[in-house]
């Protein structure tokens, strides 16, 4: 089956998780099986693998890729990663490896009707799970000026002044129907920058729509409960807000010496080599952190 998504830091993930034949594996954001297919090719332990995603398109891809998933193939769970993690812990499952890649997948960005990208005209959607009610359009067209300013500052890491300008522009000119309409309105209030001025605003809206940071905060304390002793966990982040949560959790969980839950494998995050960036520019902001359960 043709790959739809180039997994970032693939060789670094393999080196960090060190898969071995027979290892069990939990992928909390399996997506289009970029990492999972390579890891399972090593372990050959499909029956003790669990692949999770909240995106219906990714789930359909995984079910087609592993048609025997209900018998001898991997377990496939259509849930967000926090609820999936809670479920596997409730079922008493533990794994040799856990991976979470918190980035948006290429198909999500590339499909106009998903509304993730400001470079492609599409509806203001941005839902990773299209069963949920809240959309980007709800936030852009209904939320107050104060709330918009707050999310742009907090989740877009925009300056207070620019946050106010963008929020006012939105409130004064709404409703907005498409991603390109919104991006053009934001760009009209921005100074020249090496990144598109809508980048951080779209990031903020997407984070809120999908409760991305809340999901991460609730999931991190559960990781060690689903790891076997000596089990490895790898987490890939794509912006500083995510990485800060992972960094702080790993630091806290490894700070009690022999009594710590985890032992750090990576003191500093691993980033992509130039050779990867040439073929996969989206890996530029990716950071990988790895830890082992004591």
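Q: What amino acid sequence fits the structure above?
A:
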């Amino acid at each position: 089956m043709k790959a739809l998504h180039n997994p970032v830091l693939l060789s670094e993930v393999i080196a960090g998780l060190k898969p071995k034949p027979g290892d069990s594996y939990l992928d909390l954001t399996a997506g289009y099986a970029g990492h999972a297919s390579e890891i399972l090719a090593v372990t050959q332990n499909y029956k003790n693998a669990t692949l999770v995603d909240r995106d219906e398109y990714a789930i359909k891809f995984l079910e087609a890729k592993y048609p025997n998933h209900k018998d001898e193939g991997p377990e496939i769970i259509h849930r967000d990663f926090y609820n999936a993690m809670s479920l596997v812990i409730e079922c008493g499952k533990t794994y040799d490896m856990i991976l979470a890649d918190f980035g948006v997948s290429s198909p999500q960005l590339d499909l106009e009707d998903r509304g993730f990208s400001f470079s492609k005209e599409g509806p203001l959607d941005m839902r990773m799970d299209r069963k949920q009610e809240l959309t980007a359009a709800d936030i852009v067209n209904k939320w107050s000026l104060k709330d918009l300013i707050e999310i742009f500052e907090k989740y877009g890491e925009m300056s207070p002044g620019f946050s106010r300008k963008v929020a006012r522009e939105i409130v004064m000119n709404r409703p907005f129907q498409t991603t390109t309409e919104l991006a053009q309105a934001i760009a009209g209030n921005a100074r020249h920058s090496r990144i598109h001025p809508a980048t951080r605003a779209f990031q903020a809206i997407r984070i809120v729509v999908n409760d991305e940071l809340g999901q991460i905060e609730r999931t991190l304390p559960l990781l060690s409960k689903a790891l076997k002793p000596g089990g490895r966990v790898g987490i890939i982040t794509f912006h500083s807000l995510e990485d800060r949560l992972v960094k702080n959790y790993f630091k806290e969980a490894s700070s009690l010496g022999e009594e710590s839950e985890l032992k750090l494998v990576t003191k500093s995050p691993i980033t992509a080599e130039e050779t990867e960036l040439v073929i996969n520019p989206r890996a530029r902001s990716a950071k990988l952190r790895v830890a082992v359960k004591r």
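Q: And what stands out in the fold?
A: The mean pLDDT is 94.
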